Amino acid sequence: MNPRRQSRLIVVIAVGSLIAGAIGLMLYALTDSIDLFYTPSEVIEGKAGQHPQVGQRLRIGGLVVPGTVVRDATSLAVSFDLVDTGPKVTVVYDGILPDLFREGQGIVATGVLVDKTTINAEEVLAKHDEEYMPPELAEKMKGIKHVKPEQGATSL
Amino acid sequence: MWKWLHPYAKTESAYQLCSSLKPWLWGGALLSLAVGTVWGLAFAPADYQQGDSFRIIYIHVPSAILSMGTYVAMAVAALVGIVWQWRTAFMSMIAMAPVGALMTFIALFTGAAWGKPMWGAWWVWDARLTSELILLFLYFGVMALYVAFDDKQQAGKAAGVMALVGVVNVPIIHYSVEWWNTLHQGATISKFDTPSIAPEMLWPLLINLLGFALFIAAVTVVRLQNEILRREIHRPWVQQLAASRLEQKKVEPRHAV
């Protein structure tokens, strides 16, 4: 390689790795703010030494605990518990749930922390995992019955 | 080792290479897109959780993967252009940019259309969605910088630097779902592990991925030829080419309607 090309290549590589390093450090410093949500144990036990305050707006993401979904008979009000690996947090919500909402499903809810373990949510989003399989296979492998999303259940 | 590549630094041989590749790329793209799309949309089984809605994966995933792939290819072209000062490298870089931007847009758009029924939201500012949006802006930046200069060699250098700097965003997009909590799911196929998708759903996805790649290559090749002709319009070989095309048109007998 001739010396001019070589020096250009070195400059490009040096500048490139400097920029990559700078952006890497920046993202590392911002890790906590880039996370979309708190997990239930972070809400209760705190995250990086900081506890969310009662009255704070936050997002929480966790799995819906089977058997804790309580629906109001006359309105859209619903409450359920979320869990990750530790303690549970109760979510209270009044609105239409996404199609994928079901017991055991990952959920991300935005709302206000009304007391240490309860969140009054104004938005509930469903998170799904990366697994795709036909219903027969899911039944065989996981014992999950295919639940067809109810038609017309979404809001517009 | 790279001796076979050197002739294509010359615009004329690059143009001829494009001409001979073009029919294969278009043919392969149309064939695999037709097979993959029909198989995926009509014959692959429905998903156990998402039902038929999951089928948008056959457009969303190939366009998203290739929005990043095209960016990397563009950055490699920029590197070759800057270090080895090949004019054809900058020309291929700028030929790829709008195609990559289109792929990014398709990925964002199909993602929103998929997110609304499944998640319950068109858009969430999570790490994956935000970094993919930044990728779209990077493409726009490269294109805008190239247009901003009248001297196209200078323009290629400026846009090339932008393309090279932006390449740090590609690993960020890919690992965003692992590094941070996101609403977006983790990787289904682009990981060093068995894909988390049943084989009868995976095959049409892979075929469509190939189809999208060939389509991008085909459009890039056409755009590269145009760019070469535009930049080399005063060269004898371009004028000869134009003259011979004109000649062909005159000789062909026209049937009266």
Using brief descriptors, characterize the structure shown.
heterodimer, A: 156 residues, alpha+beta, OB fold (Dihydrolipoamide Acetyltransferase, E2P), 2 domains, 5-stranded mixed beta barrel, 29% helix, elongated, disordered C terminus, B: 257 residues, mainly alpha, 8 helices, 0% strand, NA-bd_OB-fold (chain A), heme (chain A), metal-binding (chain A), transmembrane helix (chain A)
Which secondary structure elements does this structure contain, and how are they paired or packed?
The complex is a heterodimer of chains A (156) and B (257).
Chain A: H1 3-29, H2 31-34, H3 40-45, E1 57-64, E2 70-71, E3 77-83, E4 89-94, E5 106-115, E6 118-127, H4 135-142
Parallel strand pairs in A: 4-6
Antiparallel strand pairs in A: 1-3, 1-5, 2-3, 3-4, 5-6
Chain B: H1 11-43, H2 57-84, H3 87-118, H4 127-148, H5 152-166, H6 169-179, H7 199-231, H8 236-251
Organism (chain B): Alteromonas ponticola
Domain Cytochrome c assembly protein (chain B): 21-184
Family (chain B): Belongs to the CcmC/CycZ/HelC family.
Question: What features would you describe in this structure?
Answer:
The complex is a heterodimer of chains A (156) and B (257). Chain A has 156 residues and is an alpha+beta fold. Helix content of chain A is 29%, strand content 28%. Chain A has 2 domains: 3-29; 38-130, Nucleic acid-binding proteins (OB fold (Dihydrolipoamide Acetyltransferase, E2P)), CATH 2.40.50. Chain A has 4 helices and 6 strands, in the order αααββββββα. Chain A has a 5-stranded mixed β-barrel. Chain A starts with a helix and ends in a 14-residue tail after the last helix. By secondary structure, chain B is mainly α. Chain B has one domain (21-46, 56-187, 199-231). Helix content of chain B is 74%, strand content 0%. Chain B starts with 10 loop residues before the first helix and ends in a 6-residue tail after the last helix. Chain A binds chain B through residues 5, 8-9, 12, 16, 19-20, 23-24, 27, 31, 34-37, 39, 61, 97-100, 108, 123-139, 144, 146-149, 154, and chain B through 45-51, 53-54, 57, 79, 82-84, 116-121, 124-127, 164-165, 167-168, 172, 179-183, 185-188, 196-198, 200-201. Chain B: The chain crosses the membrane at residues 24-44, 56-83, 90-113, 133-149, 161-181, 201-222. Chain B: InterPro entries: Cyt_c_assembly, Cyt_c_biogenesis_CcmC, Cyt_c_biogenesis_CcsA/CcmC. Chain B: It holds the Pfam family Cytochrom_C_asm.
